Amino acid sequence: MAKIISFSNQKGGVGKTTSCVNIAAQIAKKGKKVLLVDMDPQGNATSGLGISKSKIKRTIYDVVIGNADISDCIIKTAFSNLSVVPANIDLAGAELELYELEEDQNFTKLALDSVRDRFDYIFIDCPPSLGMLTVKALSVSDGVVIPMQCEFYSLEGMSQLFNTVKKIRELYNPGLQVVGILLTMYNGRLTLTGQVVAEIRKYYQEKLFKVPISRTVRLSEAPGYGQPICYHDPYCKGALEYAQVAKELMMRI
Ligand SMILES: Nc1ncnc2c1ncn2[C@@H]1O[C@H](COP(=O)(O)OP(=O)(O)OP(=O)(O)O)[C@@H](O)[C@H]1O
Ligand SMILES: [Mg+2]
Prior knowledge:
The protein has about 250 residues and is an alpha/beta fold. The chain has a single domain, classed as P-loop containing nucleotide triphosphate hydrolases (Rossmann fold, 3-Layer(aba) Sandwich). The protein has helices at about 15-30, 45-50, 60-65, 90-105, 130-140, 150-170, 190-205, 215-220, 230, 235-250; strands spanning about 5, 35-40, 75, 80-85, 120-125, 145-150, 175-185. A hairpin with a 5-residue loop joins strand 3 and strand 4 (about 80-85). Helix 1 (about 15-30) crosses helix 10. The longest helix is centred in the middle third of the chain and has 20 residues, at about 150-170. The two termini are about 15 Å apart. The mean pLDDT is about 95. Adenosine-5'-triphosphate binds next to helix 1 and helix 8. The site of adenosine-5'-triphosphate (ATP) has 20 residues, from helix 1 and helix 8.
């Protein structure tokens, strides 16, 4: 049975997709079967894995609104052991449709069960909000990974995110665990970074992944080639750091 892990932070541009794609690819490259579910209407994880958004027929939108079984939406990527359920802008409409629907219907969980025994890990790339799509993802997850930039505003959003996790545990998913907080776009030479990291340590020490992900051009250019970093430049700093985080993640959950 696959472990299901969401990558979530309501703050935008903090490295959710970069972390989800690269950790998924890294673990898949090691021989585990991995499914990445793109739960963001931006479809960044989809294109980052080299899938052209204009060519896909079925997306996670069809699963979310109950028009398709997830098994019919899975696409194999060019990378070993790594499949994806793509997303595109259709999903933006789902958020509204769901609000209308679920006011008078029971909350329905994201239907992943039919494919859970085909994979070792299912990773969900969440959108930058705590709306219905994120709630659906967290409600079926064993754990959540929280990518976070070393900025002052990052800490403000954290308590809100932890509150959401608490609410989801109470309402839908008592087993939801915070797997870890991952520092992204890290630049150890900045004084600000040091101050923010000290602050984060004060509150979340035991949750922090040991290795932060450095800010490097290689990581930002890889999606343009439709490749995870472990294929684009396997020995660059970012690839080695994500490899270490992937290892730690597998030990944690
Ligand atoms: N370690 C890094 N070094 C340099 N650039 C990075 C790094 N991590 C991510 N980026 C770049 O920063 C931008 C935001 O990253 P990403 O898309 O992963 O964040 P996100 O949290 O998924 O964003 P959104 O909230 O829009 O979904 C992207 O252009 C990405 O290529
Ligand atoms: Mg993203």
